[in-house]
Each structure stands twice: as structure tokens, then as C-alpha cells.
Amino acid sequence: MGLFFNIRKPRKFEHKPIYFDPDKEALQQRVERIKQELGLAEKSDYRNQIKGSFFEQTKHVKPRDTISGKSHSDRNIKLIVALVCLILLFCFLYTGIQLLF
């Protein structure tokens, strides 16, 4: 099919930063590395606080491993009840009304 039609390829995303100077960035990295080698750089206790902060602030978007075990057991019980109801419904439809009497 692809031989008969000219299928256009999607455009690739090319981000060109506006406010970025690679020379200045490389210079800052070199200066920081030299300061660390000489022991002049102060130790910072910086910790990234962004990672996971969205999930911590919401209740409905939490990952499954942080949800309590009670909800898992409730879900399993509901699933078992639904399966039993479906099996009974299938048996009723398959055998007819004689099953109840």
C-alpha cells in the first residue's frame, strides 16, 4: 500500500534555545569543576523538591504502591462478587428457570 501513495513523514521537533550560550555554560561548568578540585566550592545541601511533589499533593493520582492494602482487598472482593453474579446469570440463562425451583 505504501508503494502507491506518497506518505509524508512527520516533522521532527527541533528546539533551538533562544537564551542559551553554550560557551558561557561550558565556562561555568569548568569553573565549578576547578573549584571542586581545589576545595573552594562550598557544599550545598540542595535537594530537588520538584520530583514527586505533584503526587504528594494529590489524593486521586497516587501510584498504586502507595495506596493502602484495604482498597486492594475491596477491589478483589468486588471482582469476585461480580464474577459469581455473572456465573449465576449464565447458568440461569443456559439452564432456564428449572434451576431456581
Give an overview of the whole structure.
With 101 residues, the chain is mainly α. The protein contains three helices and no strands. The protein is elongated and about 90 Å long. The protein starts with 21 loop residues before the first helix and ends in a 6-residue tail after the last helix. It comes from Candidatus Gallibacteroides avistercoris. Keywords: Membrane, Transmembrane, Transmembrane helix. This is Riboflavin synthase subunit beta.
Gist?
By secondary structure, the chain is mainly alpha-helical. The chain contains 3 helices and no strands.
Key features of this structure:
101 residues; mainly alpha; 49% helix; membrane; transmembrane helix; transmembrane; Riboflavin synthase subunit beta
Major sheet = none
Helix tally equals: 3
How many E strands? Answer: 0
Structural class by sheet pairing and helices: mainly alpha
| Approximate strand percentage | under 5%
Percent range of helical residues: 40-55%
Distance between the termini: 61 Å
The average pLDDT is 79
The helix/strand order is HHH
Shape: elongated
Low-confidence parts lasting 5 or more residues at pLDDT below 50? none
Based on CA atoms alone, the radius of gyration comes out at: 31 Å
